[in-house]
Amino acid sequence: MSHLDCIRNDIRNMRAYQVADVPAGFIKLDAMESPYDYPEDMKKELGRTLAEAPIRLYPNPATCGLLQVLRDTYQIPDEADVVLGNGSDELIERLTMLVSKPGAKVLAPAPSFVMYRVNAEFFGLEFIGVPLRENFTMDLDAMLAAVKEHQPALVFIAYPNNPTGGRFAREKVQAIIDAAPGIVVVDEAYGAFSSDSFLGEAGKIPNLVVLRTLSKIGFAGLRIGYASGTPALINELKKIIPPYNMNQLSLAAAEFALQYRPFITENINKLKGERERMRTALHAYPAIRDFPSEANFLTLRVPDAKALFDKLYEHNILIKNLHGTHPLLDQCVRITIGLPEHNQAVLAVLAEMYGS
Ligand SMILES: *Cc1c(COP(=O)(O)O)cnc(C)c1O
């Protein structure tokens, strides 16, 4: 018997999450990172701010300035309590841990963010993926039937959805919140690019948690996510979040970053503009099926996803091939919106492959 045999069999049979290894000089359009770096003068200012951060001391995420800045910036309702996570990934994990009683189930539309399923499996919970419709809209009848049948302790709804890009109809999400016997997490990782949000309901609906992150709006490297909900619910979450889960440098950098709201908003608007420009341009190619997106990426169905992935790779562009990850994503790819010249480079390859 080897010492490794002490490890849970399900973990031994898993494979580690592969973070893409990107060759130098590549255009990275696989992970919804922002293409906009801070200008030099802002970087210098950030350096001065970080030099003052008290790294000698443990952080106190509950009283740090960032929480108030997030409340003010995003108008989180006064009724809501807010807790920070080391990326919203950590909050997804802890929310799953919160309900991990024997026999509890986690439910989400499918395809959606893979970490909902992965975390359910970590805690030994059954995961129910309710298929979307063929056009990636939500099948509300199927969702309500599954909620009724399985009585999930936790429902995740990515709003807008990843990896499909669309935002589900608000009334459908509301109907699920009303019908669910347990907690409903509305994950707004792409909220900044969306035309709608549930953040204004945080703290007002007992079983609702709204998750947000700074990752998709320019600060993926900081690992800052936050969950908002009623004080009663967030208080339970606080019990199982490690006391020092955040770090002083990230907290200080995020607080600094959010002072430059116009810069952030301008970048978001540029990406939304580019997203629509790309979609319109794609209509010239009958071989490509595009889907509406309220996120900073487009999901497309092409004749051969692997061939497109390879061709873009030859042009030093990395995208995400979704083919094989879910039956509904047959021959689909996901392309993050980048700088106009990045998007132009993608369009040139698409023209080469699918132009007449
Ligand atoms: C990217 C993403 C996250 C993870 O965000 P982090 O804050 O970087 O951990 C969560 N949910 C969805 C739907 C995402 O696409």
From TrEMBL:
Signal peptide: none annotated. The modification N6-(pyridoxal phosphate)lysine is found at residue 216. It catalyses: L-histidinol phosphate + 2-oxoglutarate = 3-(imidazol-4-yl)-2-oxopropyl phosphate + L-glutamate. This is Histidinol-phosphate aminotransferase. It is an enzyme of class 2 (transferase). CDD domains: AAT_like. The lineage of its organism: Bacteria, Pseudomonadati, Pseudomonadota, Betaproteobacteria, Neisseriales. InterPro entries: Aminotransferase_I/II_large (IPR004839), HisP_aminotrans (IPR005861), PyrdxlP-dep_Trfase (IPR015424), PyrdxlP-dep_Trfase_major (IPR015421), PyrdxlP-dep_Trfase_small (IPR015422). Its EC number is 2.6.1.9. One of its GO terms (biological process) is L-histidine biosynthetic process. Belongs to the class-II pyridoxal-phosphate-dependent aminotransferase family. Histidinol-phosphate aminotransferase subfamily. Residues 27-343 form the Aminotransferase class I/classII large domain. The keyword Transferase applies. Homodimer. Its cofactor is pyridoxal 5'-phosphate. One of its GO terms (molecular function) is histidinol-phosphate transaminase activity. Pathway: Amino-acid biosynthesis; L-histidine biosynthesis; L-histidine from 5-phospho-alpha-D-ribose 1-diphosphate: step 7/9. It comes from the Bacteria. The gene is hisC. Keywords: Amino-acid biosynthesis, Aminotransferase, Histidine biosynthesis, Pyridoxal phosphate, Transferase.
